[in-house]
Amino acid sequence: MADWMACPGCQLRHTRRPDGLCPRCKQPVDSADAPPMAAAPNPPPEPPPREGQAPRAPYAAPASPSAARLGNLAQAARGKELKSARTIMLFVGIMSILVNGYFFGAAASNVQEEIDKEVRKLGPTFVVDPVKLAQVKSQAVRSTRLIAFGGMLLGGVFVACGLLVEKHPVPMTVTALTLYLGGNAVFGVLNPASLGAGWIMKIFIVIALFKAVQAAFAYQKEMAATAEAA
Amino acid sequence: MTTDGPASGATAPSEWVNCWRCGKRIVRAEPSCPVCRAPRRRQAERGPAPEPASPITAVTRVLAFFGVLLLVLIVHSLAAQPLPEEGLTPQAARAHLHSIVAFEIFDAIVVGIAAWAIGRPREWRRMSDAPGGWLWASAVAGIGLVLAVNLAYHTVLRGYIGLSATTDPILAVTGATPLLLFAYCLEPAVIEELFFRYLALDTLRGVMNVHAAVAVSSLMFGLAHIGVPLSIPMLALVGMALGYARVASGRLALPMLLHFLHNFVIVLLRR
After folding, report:
1. Could you read off the pLDDT of A62-98 as tens digits, one per residue?
2. Residue B37's pLDDT is what?
3. Domain check: are B133 and B243 in the same one?
4. Any chain A CB within 8 A of the CB of B57?
5. Nearest CA in chain A to B224
6. pTM for the whole thing?
7. Co-location of B77 and B22 in the same domain
């Protein structure tokens, strides 16, 4: 049966060592003010590790079965939130690629449509300089294509974040939230009408990504503790 | 010796103190904290470091304030009168400049509130062991290189779109007045660095590795320039250079100086 004790110097709870020293701070622990904790009724002593199995780190994993079950449930809940975040990132990324791909392809016709509208507004008496008009159209088409290409790149980054979120949960969720907020702001300034479009969906996505950041942090912390224990 | 490092021998509990700066447990006899290099003289004078706020709470607040800053930028962009391409009068130019200054003062207030709400991030040890003078000199040379890449990027962009080299309309009318230098160079150098390189970068370093933190904070910095969407990739690169200057030097003064120099050269070139 493992003989548990707490180091008086650094409070590390550990099993009794043959040299009588704390494994972290090397402080002698077999003194009168540091009684072994094996006599304490709670928590119950753990079964000895099986052959080939490393002893569990005493501070990393929950000691009682109910605590372990709670930990597993919490981890599962976080995993579920990360999966939702992954779905959202992939959805936003693919939609962004598709929509901006359309705008990239249809840039010339869209610009021509806008120019026709403006010319109609000026009236039939207004004479348009065709050379200047062609120059303005060319500039507008190229600018639109550049912005649409930027939007497609943004979508690609979202997809990459979605694919990597389980491997690097915190950086990917934080990047996705930053990009989502920034991307909406940029496209909102370029086209103010887009700010209000689908605002309920936008708020839902922002809240989900905020929750995903928090879940990712807790998930990463527990994964690190599990890795340390293993 | 710290609690994270390998222990070399037995040490009595009375010999342990918490570093006044980083909060790590260290041996009292050490001349300075081996983690953050805070001198021993002050180790004895101060008590244990206050418990820092949870890093995830701080990160959430950084992201929330980034959203608030974007909102302020959107409102300013929508409220600002578009500048005429030709025939800008001195009165109109001055009025526009005053509106920019007013917006920047409001921006500074938002960053001040963010600093209060997020709290002081954990202090990090500087990454580079190079002598300070050498580091600062190479950082200035580095920002010169970034500036050259910036100019090349914008030249290629203008060539693709078919635009000629432009001057700043306000700058062309008012000239490089102290108010303009404050609005274009000084205020961004101080306030943006305070938010992106101090609050955001140092907070993000608590939850991810340093390179990821630099990348995310520079992405935020680039996206905060929503008034010039085609320059965002280049500005994110400038943000990375400033982020590494902050990380390497461990001080905020270096990225502030580099940011000021960068903007000052742009002002000189766009006269």
Report:
1. 445 555 555 667 767 777 778 888 898 999 999 999 9
2. 75
3. yes
4. no
5. A182
6. 0.73
7. no
Structure token pair of residue B140: 């200035």
Asked if the Cβ–Cβ distance from A174 to B9 is below 8 Å, we say: no
Contacts of A219 (CB under 8 A, 6+ apart): A75, A78, A79, A82, A169
Enclosing domain of residue B233: 55-81+88-269
B98/B184 same-domain check: yes
B30 and B71 belong to one structural domain = no
Structure ipTM: 0.76
Q: Decide if A17 touches B, using CB distance below 8 A.
A: no
- CB contact, 8 Å: B73 with chain A? yes
Contact B157 A9 (CB under 8 A): no
With CA atoms as reference, report the closest residue to B169 among B160, B180, B185: B180
Cα dist from B76 to A181, A213, B62, B183, B231, whole Å: 17, 29, 21, 14, 18
Judged by CB atoms closer than 8 Å, whether chains meet at A177 and B11 is answered as no
Q: Which two tokens stand for residue A227?
A: 């890795």
Q: Which residues of B touch A210 (CB under 8 A)?
A: 60, 63
